[in-house]
Amino acid sequence: LRNGFPEVIYCAGKTASEVEAIMTEMLKQDNNILATRASKELYQQVKKIAPTAVYYERARLIMIEKEVIAKTKSKLLVVSGGTSDLAVAEEAALTASALGIKVERLYDVGVAGIHRLLGNLDYLNEANVIITVAGMEGALASVVAGLVDKPVIAVPTSVGYGSNFGGLAALLTMLNSCASGIGVVNIDNGFGAAYLASTIILQLEKARKEG
Amino acid sequence: LRNGFPEVIYCAGKTASEVEAIMTEMLKQDNNILATRASKELYQQVKKIAPTAVYYERARLIMIEKEVIAKTKSKLLVVSGGTSDLAVAEEAALTASALGIKVERLYDVGVAGIHRLLGNLDYLNEANVIITVAGMEGALASVVAGLVDKPVIAVPTSVGYGSNFGGLAALLTMLNSCASGIGVVNIDNGFGAAYLASTIILQLEKARKEG
Amino acid sequence: LRNGFPEVIYCAGKTASEVEAIMTEMLKQDNNILATRASKELYQQVKKIAPTAVYYERARLIMIEKEVIAKTKSKLLVVSGGTSDLAVAEEAALTASALGIKVERLYDVGVAGIHRLLGNLDYLNEANVIITVAGMEGALASVVAGLVDKPVIAVPTSVGYGSNFGGLAALLTMLNSCASGIGVVNIDNGFGAAYLASTIILQLEKARKEG
Amino acid sequence: LRNGFPEVIYCAGKTASEVEAIMTEMLKQDNNILATRASKELYQQVKKIAPTAVYYERARLIMIEKEVIAKTKSKLLVVSGGTSDLAVAEEAALTASALGIKVERLYDVGVAGIHRLLGNLDYLNEANVIITVAGMEGALASVVAGLVDKPVIAVPTSVGYGSNFGGLAALLTMLNSCASGIGVVNIDNGFGAAYLASTIILQLEKARKEG
Amino acid sequence: LRNGFPEVIYCAGKTASEVEAIMTEMLKQDNNILATRASKELYQQVKKIAPTAVYYERARLIMIEKEVIAKTKSKLLVVSGGTSDLAVAEEAALTASALGIKVERLYDVGVAGIHRLLGNLDYLNEANVIITVAGMEGALASVVAGLVDKPVIAVPTSVGYGSNFGGLAALLTMLNSCASGIGVVNIDNGFGAAYLASTIILQLEKARKEG
Amino acid sequence: LRNGFPEVIYCAGKTASEVEAIMTEMLKQDNNILATRASKELYQQVKKIAPTAVYYERARLIMIEKEVIAKTKSKLLVVSGGTSDLAVAEEAALTASALGIKVERLYDVGVAGIHRLLGNLDYLNEANVIITVAGMEGALASVVAGLVDKPVIAVPTSVGYGSNFGGLAALLTMLNSCASGIGVVNIDNGFGAAYLASTIILQLEKARKEG
Amino acid sequence: LRNGFPEVIYCAGKTASEVEAIMTEMLKQDNNILATRASKELYQQVKKIAPTAVYYERARLIMIEKEVIAKTKSKLLVVSGGTSDLAVAEEAALTASALGIKVERLYDVGVAGIHRLLGNLDYLNEANVIITVAGMEGALASVVAGLVDKPVIAVPTSVGYGSNFGGLAALLTMLNSCASGIGVVNIDNGFGAAYLASTIILQLEKARKEG
Amino acid sequence: LRNGFPEVIYCAGKTASEVEAIMTEMLKQDNNILATRASKELYQQVKKIAPTAVYYERARLIMIEKEVIAKTKSKLLVVSGGTSDLAVAEEAALTASALGIKVERLYDVGVAGIHRLLGNLDYLNEANVIITVAGMEGALASVVAGLVDKPVIAVPTSVGYGSNFGGLAALLTMLNSCASGIGVVNIDNGFGAAYLASTIILQLEKARKEG
Ligand SMILES: Nc1ncnc2c1ncn2[C@@H]1O[C@H](COP(=O)(O)O)[C@@H](O)[C@H]1O
Ligand SMILES: Nc1ncnc2c1ncn2[C@@H]1O[C@H](COP(=O)(O)O)[C@@H](O)[C@H]1O
Ligand SMILES: Nc1ncnc2c1ncn2[C@@H]1O[C@H](COP(=O)(O)O)[C@@H](O)[C@H]1O
Ligand SMILES: Nc1ncnc2c1ncn2[C@@H]1O[C@H](COP(=O)(O)O)[C@@H](O)[C@H]1O
Ligand SMILES: [Mg+2]
Ligand SMILES: [Mg+2]
Ligand SMILES: [Mg+2]
Ligand SMILES: [Mg+2]
Ligand SMILES: [Mg+2]
Ligand SMILES: [Mg+2]
Ligand SMILES: [Mg+2]
Ligand SMILES: [Mg+2]
Q1: Is G114–E174 a contact, with Cβ atoms under 8 angstroms apart?
Q2: Which of C42, D63, F163, H58 is the most buried (most CB within 10 A)?
């Protein structure tokens, strides 16, 4: 994307020694490094070869920052429903931040108590791109997209049980929203939502320069 | 339920002559008669043996009223999202009416333009029971249930396409709602929603008398 | 709902320290507190900050009662099929009780031995609202709804194996019942059933007063 | 099975001329002939080459009887729920009859009005094998199997809509029944149920002779 | 069924102390007792209150025999595909035996090496009822039913991976078999297959007496 | 969005007279009008009240342009796989055009002959936003997203048969892409893809002005 | 593949004039032409521009042969279960023939009467590659693959009803076969099976030359 | 297949002592032995009775080579997408090798960075048969099959999360590929892919000899 744009490792399904091998190679370059879906145990091991590595437990992210990356002028808002969606919301917010994006958060604004969302319309109005993270039935995405005319990236989470079928309920909600302007990513894919946001914001930053 | 409570025929999958035979039998009694899922052709034929029969095309209902049924004191509100949900919403509203219930309608208040719903909170506040009818992703049910502390009966409709899978998306939404207080009926089952509402309102009318 | 109506925490997917933080905040108020889907370990920890907390192991509920809540005149009946459905049935019954509702139980009346149910029709006749909890194929809901003209709230449970698909079989049964008057909640959602019952009974109590 | 046991043609997915060709071949033998899933149009054409052919419209069966087949001593009972299940129930009953089995029918005894079934226990008690045909949620099979200690063959029908998913709801019900002693066949497979019954009754007739 | 017919406990989803309580009650009677889906740990505990209890590890069954039950004249054959299906095949065979049925076994005759099955047709010919147990794609049931004119009870097992979807592949195979005469039970339900077989064989034994 | 931004009618599931009524209302304003999922018959009727209406048969769109809308500086590229995907691709391209966006098309570049896509990288490089429309297995979206660092909006189409399950195969492909930067819309939702693109391009145009 | 290898048009989802346009272009070359999924009406129209076109109704194929293509030494066997699978089996056999392959047919050898297959082992033994076409439960593929050590290409067909789910049952059977050596193609994809066979046989013909 | 062709044990779902018993029997013969889906613990135990056994951890294979098997002239290429697919890719490559096939590997050529695949076309061109192993959306199979005219065996892996549904996404992709010439095996079935490849290569080796 820009200077400082990190290299990314997806740790799920890789052994610690595999991740270590990939990272050792990456550490020879000057890029920042972002490792997603990383357990605390993996972090302990990574720390031995990269002492400056920082761990975000809730988001299961390891970050190694070699170069400070200037934040974009364009702003991303991450909106989420309940406490249980925080892991995914933070994966999105911290990834976006690592990708150099200015990020704001509006958490705990689920539709069961819609007045909290309606009382914070300023957040929605000031953002250029919005990521909505929601589990259960995922109705938050529809409500947010109905309130704004901006790109809304919707992340269904696997939070729920029974006929939720591991996030399927929220996924179908987001794909079938009666409000237009929503692009959906995979269940629990906070990383992917942030990455998609970054491709939009890269275009925005270019447009600012080009005029 | 009460005096005037109609007998009901479910016409889907029955031939015209089968419906006619059942109705001929019923017409010997004094009960009102309600026929659901009735085509216009069926109505033409029914009219021959029951000249006072009335047809509600959108709701696909035939009604034969022999005895005027006094309306309940308790009030049912039928809320719906889009124009395409009207057939099911009207099946619910007219069935409830035929069951002797006082019915109000609040239509075209989908979450894509949530201010229309929020601008009509009086309707929600004055009802004893609410039926929400919604297709696509069915988020309306969650929003309504989040706004009130009353029984909400949710009817998913088969309105939509693609990953809607014939109403599955809205059904899962309603079963997984983050707002509590929702009882769900089958996809497109406006009749069933009205019937469930009538069992609640029967209890309410009794409670009024008993104190 | 009424005085004494508890605040509720859904513990699944929250860490013990998150639950503790939320509870500490709640304990500053005078409300009763109900925590659902709580493990025994969580209870041990909660006990440290709320020594009067009571734990219902089978139902996985923690209750903290600060104010005694008077029971309603209206009566809720919780009906269940087999021993394995008890966890969900008790989640419903104890939640309803915590919400201030007069609750009766009719357990172990599955359709494999239908005479036990038929021998207890008094229970069904005396209730204002009925919750039926059933796993396997969930036929109990249909049979109960066929016997009464009252609101029946149906809770499918995930009890079963193979083509049960985690409760899907019972869920579909309840949604497609040939007996009308059933409102369905999510698989294993005993809490939601009780909450929906409470919204009905709140209306009943009001109606008693209003006449 | 026995003398007079018919040859069977499954007409779905075959052109009229293909059926005709197969039948012409069969007519050279002395066997009775049974054609399932046959339309009225097909029957008209068959009549030209087999003038004694009889058509059962509801069951979509064509029968050509060359040899009268003596009925078994063992008795099959076909039980069904609603009017809409009649096509499948009759496919089962008439097929069984064509296979030489003594057949009784107990129709319109769905669980929504369970007293009709309970008032006819004699039928259940006098049968050797029972076929239950039910659509919607298919709970009838569970209730019947709970009342008897005989082989129950369950046929789910595709009667229903929405989350019925073409008979899936009834199929899952029957496979997951809390009452044991049920063997399930494919959705709408009245023929297969009758055939399975005939294999049981063939064993019974043999056992009568062997002692 | 007959004298000596055992009482049955389904242990899945019951705690050891719940099973113990039920058994203590049962032990006051003279009936044999059969406990299905029982772990080795459970057996250790049961042994303390019922020292004559026997455990069949592969089939996960506990049996307590108080009265020796005479075997039937009619014969049940249990056929199975691979080694991995043995747990379910033995649940069926041992349950049937506990129900007083004469049982034979024909194991390891999967269709990948069909000559082993074809070389053992005598087994098929001498049985009155056949249970086929098969996982993976479950084709064994079709082949067996194609070879005989007897009731075939088919048990799909959850053996397999990937698109097997926990036994769904074998289940659908058995429901859609091109060979008629198959009654299907739930995935892994060896008990249910044996129980269904026992209802057929009960009829056979009666027929022998009646003539 | 901007001056000239049209009002939109979704015609599926509305009768001709309902569409006419809505349009008559809209025609009183100065806005352009876009009607999606419109049949040729509907167009004939619309023409009577709006003689300047233009019909795009393949895309099933009716457009009524009252005000010429200046095209954006930012560019949208619509990429599609096979001839059968054209209806959806054109729905996207023409909708975007009606929303005032500069649109280019790159059609018939499916992955079965990947060199056609690779020979047209200029198109990809010059666009600000890309919509990929693909049926069958939908792999085109992954390949395109792997080649660029721009927002890719993926539209699965229902083109295919058998295990395609009405577009499910392509939908899952797009949600699970190993290439990041993809936002997915519903199956066949060309309109929604264009609308999402317009929300991004609106931000781009603003950014150009703001700098 | 080789000289004479035809160009292929997949007609489903294309209008007659689109097919005509593509064909007019192709007719300028010397290649043979094969059009799949072609209706009789389409053929009538094609005949006008290509008078030598031949139509195979059952297989829904149009062939235009400009150059006679010499048949391969390697042999393909197409095996099928029932009459209803013929359309797909012929699509495979005729496509393979058009691709220059020596083809044999062994039809009507379903597992319900396995002796017909076992009585024709010579066909299996003399082929280099085998295509098995089967609907219902599709067990034929397992049995064939168990009998030979050759590449078996399995084509599930959509023949069946109820829990067949449009060919899903046969598809899962073939993917989960306990016999190894099976490569599966999409439901009803006779063309694809023939094409895959041709890639194998192309390698065989090359190997014959290379030694 | 040929001299040295190993006997194969599928270890999943077998206890260590069952595997040991089977192996003890096999070790009496001179065949090589291949055990798939074997854990490290199982290997430790096998080593005691077969000290020359070798374990491939990533592929979960145990091999016991008694006779060195000469490699084929025909060549198999195993292509895979990401690091996480290695277990399955190696199961395929090592199995093929144990079956006597000359094997090459082209790993880490996923479509997210398609230039790595395009830069290695020589590998594709020199192979006789190709196995593609891919998880996530599995698009690799389509791209490879689009580039060559050889038999492509596609193995979907269960690598992924959310709407991947345990490999279903990749499976559907491969079955619906717009590129022809693909035979699909079960999810994660590296063994089956290698076995299918060996049946093709056996034919090739024969063809070389026959000419
Ligand atoms: N949580 C995630 N979900 C999906 N894709 C991811 C995730 N994290 C990283 N990725 C993608 O995976 C790539 C790295 O994959 P790998 O080479 O297997 O480590 C990155 O470049 C990202 O595009
Ligand atoms: N639209 C409907 N959907 C579901 N159930 C219905 C509907 N209309 C009527 N019913 C039920 O069907 C019963 C009549 O069924 P039947 O005897 O088959 O006509 C009524 O008593 C209702 O309980
Ligand atoms: N493995 C099993 N699968 C399905 N049903 C079973 C099984 N074992 C026992 N049962 C049934 O469960 C009943 C006992 O259930 P419960 O009262 O819950 O222990 C028995 O009478 C059987 O009908
Ligand atoms: N019946 C069929 N099923 C699947 N793919 C087919 C079929 N017939 C032809 N094809 C493929 O479709 C291609 C032609 O597609 P099209 O260019 O859309 O006509 C051929 O080259 C084949 O690869
Ligand atoms: Mg919006
Ligand atoms: Mg509420
Ligand atoms: Mg009722
Ligand atoms: Mg019984
Ligand atoms: Mg048979
Ligand atoms: Mg990209
Ligand atoms: Mg083989
Ligand atoms: Mg190719």
Answers
A1: no
A2: F163
